[in-house]
Design goal:
Elements: E1 3-6, E2 10-15, E3 27-32, H1 34-44, E4 49-56, H2 59-70, E5 78-81, E6 88-95, E7 98-104, H3 120-124, E8 128-132, H4 140-155, E9 159-163, H5 173-186, E10 189-190, H6 194-201, H7 206-216, E11 220-224, E12 229-233, E13 238-242, H8 255-268, H9 273-287, H10 300-308
Parallel strand pairs: 1-4, 1-8, 2-6, 4-5, 8-9, 9-10, 10-11
Antiparallel strand pairs: 2-3, 6-7, 11-12, 12-13
Helix pairs in contact: 1-8, 6-7, 8-9
Bound molecules: 2-keto-3-deoxygluconate.
2-keto-3-deoxygluconate (KDG) is lined by residues 32-34, 37, 134, 165, 167, 253-254, 256-257, 293.
């Protein structure tokens, strides 16, 4: 396994029409979750990825596992739970720049994830363990599970990648900050957005923030600044890597997961940090051009075609 990730994926319902969802009668059914989005992004680029989770013993759970398996992700560690349903969420495209998300995930099957769902050998077989700040918010057992997974990874020298993915609807702010700081101090690689970094350290200046993350214990930090690009920091190096302009953002959700997949793919391919961040920026840009979190992510051919064309415009 190149990468193992763990977390909840939900059924995603998106209205066919924009505007207040109370008027929507038709919906598209998709699947989305930060960790499986990331896993799918890597699998499309040809990497070996595994996703650990729980789904309900229901039609949605069956369809979700088939979908993720169909994308080339190993689902051997996904458990089917007959006591809780598969989680659900809705995306409401209210108006331009006003996208809202509604969760129906409390007590879902994935919220029952616990340390017992972790197979140490499976985690040990990977080069990277990827976790997000969403999972520890889901329940006490999910919180414990995340720290057990980190412990297992560290025991076997598997690098821990932490994407904070702050979801304010799921958290008490103080608890979120404390948890993110605790995970960041144990992670090798942290991938915050600038706003998440500010949330964690109360610092807006990106250079100072990068330094704070490194002092806090991470070997590599990449701070994303949206469409502009991202800054990477290590103990002895830091650079800004410009993003790729997108003519029309169709759906911004999933950009961060695409970024993480592109960046880790770059590291797995032995690229320099600069080139890995650039690949992350490209995948983030691809992700937002299509409705759905993962539908826009490229396969390896598409990615290299994009680079070979030396295109600066993702939309053409
Ligand atoms: O990163 C995109 C995900 O956040 C979204 O698809 C749903 O996993 C999700 C969440 O918990 O918000």
């Amino acid at each position: 396994m190149d990468v193992v990730t763990v977390g909840e994926t939900m059924v995603l319902m998106t209205p066919d029409s924009s505007g207040p969802m109370r008027y929507a009668n038709e919906f598209m059914r998709k699947f989305a979750g930060a960790e499986s989005n990331f896993a799918i992004g890597l699998a499309r680029l040809g990497h070996q990825v595994g996703w650990i989770s729980r789904v309900g013993k229901d039609e949605f759970g069956k369809a979700m596992v088939s979908f993720i398996r169909g994308e080339g992700v190993d689902v051997s560690q996904v458990k089917v739970d007959d006591s809780a349903p598969t989680g659900l969420y809705f995306k409401e495209f209210r108006r331009a720049n006003d996208l809202r998300v509604y969760y129906y995930r409390k007590n879902s099957a994935a919220s029952k994830l616990s340390p017992d769902d972790l197979n140490e050998e499976y985690i040990a077989s990977a080069k990277f363990l990827h976790i997000t700040g969403i999972t520890p918010a889901l329940s006490d057992s999910c919180y414990e599970m995340i720290f057990s997974a980190i412990e297992m990874a560290k025991k076997h020298s598997v690098k821990v990648v932490f994407d904070p993915n702050l979801r304010r609807k799921l958290w008490d702010e103080g608890k979120a900050r404390e948890t993110f700081l605790k995970i960041a101090s144990q992670a090798d690689i942290v991938l915050p957005g600038l706003d998440e970094g500010e949330f964690m350290f109360g610092e807006k200046d990106v250079e100072k923030l990068g330094k704070l993350f490194i002092e806090h214990g991470s070997a590599i930090v990449v701070i994303k600044t949206g469409a502009d690009g991202a800054y990477y920091f290590t103990n002895d190096d830091h650079k800004f890597v410009p993003g790729f302009p997108v003519a029309k953002v169709v759906d911004p959700v999933g950009a961060g997961d695409g970024f993480a997949a592109g960046f880790i793919s770059g590291l797995l391919d032995g690229l320099s940090l600069y080139e890995a961040v650039k690949r992350g920026n490209v995948l983030g840009a691809f992700a937002v051009t299509v409705n759905g979190d993962v539908e826009g992510l490229p396969d390896r051919d598409e990615l290299f075609t994009f680079f070979n064309e030396k295109s600066n415009d993702v939309s053409r």
